[in-house]
Design goal:
Blueprint: E1 2-4, E2 7-9, H1 13-35, H2 44-63, H3 76-86, H4 89-109, H5 121-148, H6 162-176
Antiparallel strand pairs: 1-2
Helix pairs in contact: 1-5, 2-3, 2-4, 3-4, 3-5, 3-6, 4-5, 5-6
């Protein structure tokens, strides 16, 4: 931190804090995904769900405004929750990390979105890390509530439970707001 005109300068701390939070959330989720009880089986249906969710997530991310400007789009989290409930925690982490990084790459190419305001490399990186941290925190909250209430993913007709699903979804949405 540096002192400028009697006020603390936090600009150098914010990127480090964002990166640290993203890394911590990512580490927790990687541990949870690798130790989860449900075996991860890759089949055509799950691959289609993953691909569809990544495409929707990236498009919505690119169209959403910056978080700092109050233009945060909470609907992005709905894609994350659909992925979580229809597949596994590992697939959902892949969506959050892969989708955010793919949107970052598209933003860095510049000029691909008509009418989009250009962002610097640093702003694009911070936005991607903030999205990962926000979605990761929301996913963690939803996963904790859903698991504590006895929910099992992926949801099927045989194991669907309304209360865990409802409260898990509401928790994830509340955290993003």
């Amino acid at each position: 931190m540096r002192r400028l005109s009697g006020t603390l300068q936090f600009k150098s701390i914010v990127p480090a804090l964002t990166f640290t939070l993203s890394s911590m959330v990512g580490g927790v989720f990687l541990f949870l995904a690798l130790t989860q009880q449900t075996p991860v089986t890759i089949n055509a249906e799950r691959f289609i769900v993953l691909t569809t969710c990544v495409i929707i997530f990236v498009c919505a991310d690119l169209l959403a405004g910056r978080i700092e400007g109050g233009l945060w789009a909470g609907y992005l989290n709905l894609v994350v929750m659909v992925m979580f409930f229809s597949t596994t925690l590992l697939a959902t982490i892949t969506l959050v990390l892969g989708g955010s990084l793919l949107a970052l790459i598209i933003r860095l190419q510049g000029g691909l979105l008509p009418g989009a305001s250009p962002m610097s490399r640093a702003v694009s990186h911070r936005l991607a890390l903030k999205r990962i941290a926000l979605h990761g925190t929301s996913l963690l909250g939803a996963w904790v509530v859903y698991t504590l209430l006895g929910g099992v993913t992926p949801i099927t007709f045989a194991n669907f439970a309304l209360l865990p699903t409802f409260f898990g979804l509401i928790t994830g949405i509340i955290i993003t707001q």
